[in-house]
Amino acid sequence: MLELAKTLIGKECVIFTISDANVCGVLESVSGNAIKVRGKKSTEIINLDFVVRIREVPAKK
């Protein structure tokens, strides 16, 4: 999951966690076992052990 998350750095993503708390934002960095996501109002750091799926949001045309 760590190497796959690195391919999405700088892209708008939706991160799905095991607690059904979805996080939307730009994936800023991946380090250790955590990812940093910048949303519209805040920045969140999420442990990759709790991430179920990461989906890239397609750019609007």
Structure description:
Helices cover 8% and strands 51% of the residues. The mean pLDDT is 92. A hairpin with a 5-residue loop joins β1 (12-17) and β2 (23-31). The chain is built from one helix and five strands, in the order αβββββ. By secondary structure, the chain is mainly beta. The chain has a single domain, classed as SH3 type barrels (Roll). The protein has a five-stranded antiparallel β-sheet. The chain is globular and about 30 Å long.
| N-to-C order of helices and strands | HEEEEE
Shape: globular
Structural class: mainly beta
Cα Rg: 11 Å
- Secondary-structure arrangement, i.e. CATH architecture: Roll
Any low-confidence stretches, pLDDT <50, length ≥5? none
Beta strand count: 5
Number of helical elements: 1
- C-alpha end-to-end distance: 29 Å
In CATH, the topology is named: SH3 type barrels
Please report which band the strand proportion falls in: under 5%, 5-15%, 15-25%, 25-35%, 35-45% or over 45%. over 45%
**Count of structural domains:** 1
Question: Overall mean pLDDT score?
Answer: 92
**CATH structural class:** Mainly Beta
Major sheet description: 5 strands, antiparallel
Helix proportion: under 10%
What's the arrangement of strands in the largest beta sheet?
Answer: 4-3-2-1-5
Could you outline the blueprint of secondary structure elements for this entry?
Layout: H1 2-6, E1 12-17, E2 23-31, E3 34-38, E4 43-47, E5 51-56
Antiparallel strand pairs: 1-2, 1-5, 2-3, 3-4
List keywords for this structure.
61 residues; mainly beta; SH3 type barrels; five-stranded antiparallel beta sheet; 1 helix; 5 strands
